[in-house]
Amino acid sequence: MFGVSMRTLISPSLAPFSLHLPKPSLFSTALRFSSLTTSTISINNRSPTNSPPSAISTRKLQTKATAITSSSSSHPLSSSPGEIHVVVGPMFSGKTTTLLRRILAEKETGKKIAVIKSNKDTRYCTESIVTHDGEKFPCWSLPDLSSFKERFGFDEYENRLDVIGIDEAQFFGDLYEFCREAADKEGKTVIVAGLDGDFKRRRFGSVLDLIPIADTVTKLTSRCEVCGKRALFTELIGGAEVYMPVCRSHYVCGQSVLETARAVLDSSSNKHDVVASLL
Ligand SMILES: Nc1ncnc2c1ncn2[C@@H]1O[C@H](COP(=O)(O)OP(=O)(O)O)[C@@H](O)[C@H]1O
Ligand SMILES: Cc1cn([C@H]2C[C@H](O)[C@@H](COP(=O)(O)O)O2)c(=O)[nH]c1=O
Ligand SMILES: [Zn+2]
Fold first, then answer.
1. Which atom of ligand 1 is nearest the CA belonging to 91?
2. Where are the domains of the chain?
3. pTM, whole model, 2 decimals?
4. Hey, which of 89, 138, 149, 179 would disulfide with 220, CB 3.0 to 4.6 Å?
5. Is 168 an active-site residue?
6. Please, are residues 138 and 127 in contact by the beta-carbon 8 Å criterion?
7. Phi and psi dihedrals of 252, rounded to 5?
8. Which chain regions cross the lipid bilayer (predicted)?
9. In degrees to the nearest 10, what's the CA dihedral of 68, 44, 36, 118?
10. Catalytic residue among 83, 127, 156, 168, which?
11. Domain formed by 2-47+75-252, architecture
12. pLDDT tens figures, 168-207
């Protein structure tokens, strides 16, 4: 649905956007994932999926030793602590693609993996995560994360699962608790992909709450549908579900266009009301 919507973005209703560039959709057509930009804050200087350097092994050993002598936790560490990697950005910035790459890299090293996405996202397919380029990977489509262990099987989860990928993380109300427990107490590596902000640039769900407990945070960017520059934000451009990635200038410009359009619509519907009331 989105693939189609984005290809028809510059519709008559978007005339104000197209004023800035004669053929803005060329940017999305030409865009490949490799051209999207990334900035990663690696809190402990290791890459998300690479095997840890020796300093990390030392840290894990120390933490393990601490866990053995600690009796305060109701969930004593049975293995090394896990990791949390967070991938955020606007729509079409490559979050699902990145998640998929990282998950496949983990799988290739022999790790047992599982991918979960919110069942609120039914755009392409419910049983798979699907990138906007059509790449797919089977997943658990769930209403919340707390139901995952039971569905996956407690024993299988505890003893065999190494890596959990979470897509559309902004829709999970229990994201923070799930990730903290999985990484801190259950030794899982959790790779989380989701929107940091909504179309009003407000924080979305609890994705941002993960930052203080994350190993790495990667903010991806897309390409502005209007000018082709780096897109940081997602703009809602039509109905309830048509979005496009935009740069800061065009986000601001789009907001003022929308405000003006709303004001015009309001005043004209008021005029109609007045006229109607006179008839
Ligand atoms: N308007 C667009 N702007 C940028 N990328 C787009 C657009 N439309 C489709 N794409 C494609 O979407 C891909 C990213 O898809 P995906 O990983 O699913 O992103 P996200 O999960 O961040 O929404 C890009 O590599 C690009 O090929
Ligand atoms: C900006 C924005 C998005 N959504 C929805 C629309 C999609 O279902 C997902 C984002 O998917 P993607 O993998 O990042 O392309 O979120 C929303 O509900 N509200 C918003 O403001
Ligand atoms: Zn722009």
1. 23
2. 2-47+75-252
3. 0.75
4. 89
5. yes
6. yes
7. -65, -45
8. none
9. 20
10. 168
11. 3-Layer(aba) Sandwich (3.40)
12. 999 999 999 999 999 999 999 999 999 999 999 999 999 9
